[in-house]
Amino acid sequence: MRKKKWLIDAHNLMHQIPDIKGMLQSNHLEAMRELCRRVGKACIAEKRKATVVFDGVPLMIPGNYAGLKLLFSRERTADEVIMSLMAEEGADASWILVSDDREIRHKAFYHHVEILRCRLFIDRILEVDKAQEIAKGSMPSPKKKAPKKKVKDPGAVENPPTPEEDIDMFLKLFSKDK
To answer: Which of 112, 142, 149, 172 could be cross-linked to 92 through a Cys-Cys bond (beta carbons 3.0 to 4.6 Å apart)?
Structure first.
């Protein structure tokens, strides 16, 4: 079975990533490129494809973004484009919606499309970034935890008495011949 593709509400996701959100006012195009770079890396890492839906008209976004298909809503809204894709035949087997937009998530639920909240998707992106930094050697690899020492049970007896020894001890303690 093919892996489901991510269907990404671009501007909704961009507002959830702090450094990209900061870029939106000063350099919107660069913010879009950065989102595409990060999603592209996640696509490679998870061997998955993604469709990223932006509001507005197509902009020149130079670069090769592996596994990405970029859609621009043109005269519609990105939400309308996403909802129309989820309404298509077989959408439930094709898509994982990435959005925190309540209306879109409601529509996804109605069409049985899997939903991935932005925070969980961002965590995946961060894991990919961290793994790449470790591979490059620019970040120390996480130390493996030493196995915990086995703690002895204070009530445990090293050489427990056998049932016969228990009976002998019991007879000595409670016999009338003290």
So the answer is: 112
